[in-house]
């Protein structure tokens, strides 16, 4: 199309192309922001789980082998396992007991089960034999 002298402005095709470019740019920007928000949420969930696991590990009582389980109000679950770290023969030879304490927090995210687990060894005094 040719323009007549004195006419100003954009043609309909130019306007539609500009709107398509703006729309495409907005869609890409929305996707980038959405992905970043999802990564942030996942990082927060992971940090919450690690904090809970560390708290469970610190609060775990050691002694006889045991397994404890429970749930948090948000639906995630926890488990603490206390097991002997040495075989029974070696355990008798040592002047102290060595136990393995493992804490696990499990939660669902986007239809997948995720979990964090920490394990440590603890040395405890042997209970006196009766």
Overview of the molecule:
With 130 residues, this protein is α+β, with helices and mostly antiparallel strands. Helices cover 42% and strands 32% of the residues. It has one domain (12-125). It contains two helices and four strands; from the N terminus they run αββαββ. The chain has a four-stranded antiparallel β-sheet with strand order 1-2-3-4. The chain starts with 11 loop residues before the first helix and ends in a 5-residue tail after the last strand. The chain has helices spanning 12-59, 88-93, and strands at 66-71, 77-84, 96-109, 112-125.
Could you give the topology of this structure?
Blueprint: H1 12-59, E1 66-71, E2 77-84, H2 88-93, E3 96-109, E4 112-125
Antiparallel strand pairs: 1-2, 2-3, 3-4
Which tags fit this structure?
130 residues; alpha+beta; four-stranded antiparallel beta sheet
Please outline the major beta sheet. Answer: 4 strands, antiparallel
End-to-end separation: 105 Å
The amount of beta strand, in percent, is 25-35%
Q: State the low-pLDDT regions, or none.
A: none
Estimate the mean pLDDT confidence.
87
| Residue share in helix | 40-55%
Strand arrangement across the biggest beta sheet: 1-2-3-4
How many DSSP H or I helices? 2
Overall number of structural domains: 1
CA-atom Rg in angstroms: 30 Å
| Secondary-structure content class | alpha+beta
Number of strands: 4
Q: Any idea what the shape is?
A: rod-shaped
Secondary-structure element order, N to C: HEEHEE
